[in-house]
């Protein structure tokens, strides 16, 4: 491995500088002297919780349905392998940030590696990814509100209520001050999926299955779905782990960025275990009788309970994915100015405008692609895979070449490993985009698509086979 990744080298990186007047000069935030918000307040434990909440929230809600496509054994293996691969690419984020403290987002990575063109491409791609994820969060919020209220009002209005709530909370200026919602969110999501798992295991047959007469869960140890469906499922699984694009912004707000790896390992241990266990257990008991999202699979009162527990977590996820891209825009507009880290009128106007703009775009996305699994597949293939795997491998290879050191055998192997993941990610992008488009077309052909900006109840939606 390149010396760039060696721990002893990391300790020599100047992550921050203390000025003569006692202020901390950060490479991103400038002077942090108490006159404005402290953008470096996250400890490693709260960072781990923020990372978990970025990862867990949407993907886990449909993970069991991917096993119905891939089969139980291949599906579990894909969940675990993708988790391991993304843990490695997430690790690259932390080490790259230590070597280049001025980096705040993937856009800054693009500037370093490819210049202004690379910066603009990754800036737009990263921003789009986050607002799409927030849009998926708003869609899930509307589903939860429909479930707990028995579809009291039009679904589009529920999405609008979710967007307004998210916009209000996301406008809090620092991750440190909104990290409390990630604790609530993680506990809510975990409680909901545990409740679902217990509930489906106690029923004689799934809620959506025939309640009288013979029935068959149609469990598949080995999937027999068409290749295109398998590609869509893999793309959605990659999306479920694709927190890397947002991790740069989280590291930038840590008190000690060198502790990122510790936070990451805790996060990924929780995430991989949760995804695997929940998917396997729920699929075992429900089989093909799964709803989208999965929390509706228990039906009746249990569906309301599950969505009630999940609602804070869904809001928390949408808040993070509205807050982070809004801050991305704010830093882009105010960087190197006195307004960035000071409570000036310009600071507040730019900040609240960025929040409102991002929430509005996410609302439009949620209503334009109203089928949850389809939205996950689109985001996974088009944005999540290139931004959470492809770019990270390119970062590693660029850094190794930049060092221009005599390669060792270990270094060659690591370079080859990153090149392999890079090629694998390109294959996943191509097949995933094709599969997502075909899935949406297939739903339209079957008359199975919820209408954009419609009022229909989406909490009991069951994809047609």
Automatic annotation (TrEMBL):
GO cellular component, one term: membrane
Membrane topology type: Multi-pass membrane protein
Localization per record: Membrane
UniProtKB keywords: Membrane, Transmembrane, Transmembrane helix
Superkingdom of the organism of origin: Eukaryota
The keyword Transmembrane is annotated on this UniProt entry: yes
PANTHER family found in the cross-reference section: AMINO ACID TRANSPORTER, AMINO ACID TRANSPORTER (EUROFUNG)
Name of the molecule in the record: Amino acid transporter transmembrane domain-containing protein
Organism: Apiotrichum porosum
């Amino acid at each position: 491995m390149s010396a760039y990744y060696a721990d002893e080298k990391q300790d020599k990186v100047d992550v921050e500088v203390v000025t003569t007047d006692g202020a901390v000069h950060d490479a991103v935030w400038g002077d942090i002297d108490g006159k404005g918000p402290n953008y470096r307040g996250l400890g490693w434990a709260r960072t781990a919780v923020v990372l978990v909440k970025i990862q867990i929230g949407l993907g886990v809600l449909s993970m069991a349905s991917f096993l119905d496509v891939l089969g139980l054994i291949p599906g579990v293996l894909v969940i675990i392998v993708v988790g391991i691969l993304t843990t490695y690419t997430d690790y690259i984020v932390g080490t790259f940030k230590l070597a280049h403290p001025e980096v705040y987002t993937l856009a800054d990575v693009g500037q370093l590696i490819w210049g202004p063109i690379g910066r603009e491409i990754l800036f737009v791609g990263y921003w789009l990814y986050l607002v799409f994820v927030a849009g998926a969060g708003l869609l899930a919020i509307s589903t939860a509100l429909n479930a707990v209220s028995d579809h009291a009002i039009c679904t589009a209005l529920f999405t609008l209520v979710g967007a307004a709530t998210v916009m209000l909370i996301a406008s809090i200026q620092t991750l440190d001050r909104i990290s409390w919602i990630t604790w609530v969110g993680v506990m809510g999501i975990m409680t909901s999926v545990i409740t679902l798992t217990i509930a489906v295991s106690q029923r004689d047959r799934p809620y959506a299955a025939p309640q009288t007469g013979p029935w068959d869960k149609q469990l598949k140890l080995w999937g027999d779905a068409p290749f295109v469906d398998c590609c869509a499922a893999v793309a959605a699984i990659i999306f479920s782990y694709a927190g890397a694009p947002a991790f740069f912004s989280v590291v930038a707000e840590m008190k000690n960025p060198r502790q990122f790896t510790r936070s990451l390992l805790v996060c990924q241990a929780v995430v991989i275990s949760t995804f695997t266990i929940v998917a396997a257990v729920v699929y075992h008991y429900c089989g093909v009788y799964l709803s989208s999202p999965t929390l509706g699979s228990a039906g009746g009162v249990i569906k309301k309970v599950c969505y009630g527990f999940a609602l804070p977590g869904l809001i928390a996820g949408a808040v993070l994915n509205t807050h982070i891209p809004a801050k991305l825009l704010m830093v882009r507009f105010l960087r190197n100015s006195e307004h960035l880290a000071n409570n000036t009128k310009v600071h507040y106007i730019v900040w609240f405008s960025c929040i409102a703009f991002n929430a509005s775009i996410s609302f439009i996305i949620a209503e334009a692609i109203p089928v949850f699994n389809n939205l996950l597949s689109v985001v996974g293939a088009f944005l999540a895979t290139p931004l959470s795997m492809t770019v990270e491998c390119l970062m590693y290879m660029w850094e190794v070449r930049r060092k221009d050191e005599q390669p060792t055998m270990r270094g060659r192997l690591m370079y080859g490993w990153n090149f392999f993941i890079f090629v694998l990610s390109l294959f996943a992008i191509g097949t995933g985009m094709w599969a997502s488009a075909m899935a949406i077309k297939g739903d339209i052909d079957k008359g199975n698509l919820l209408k954009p900006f419609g009022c229909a109840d989406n909490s009991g939606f069951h994809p047609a086979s």
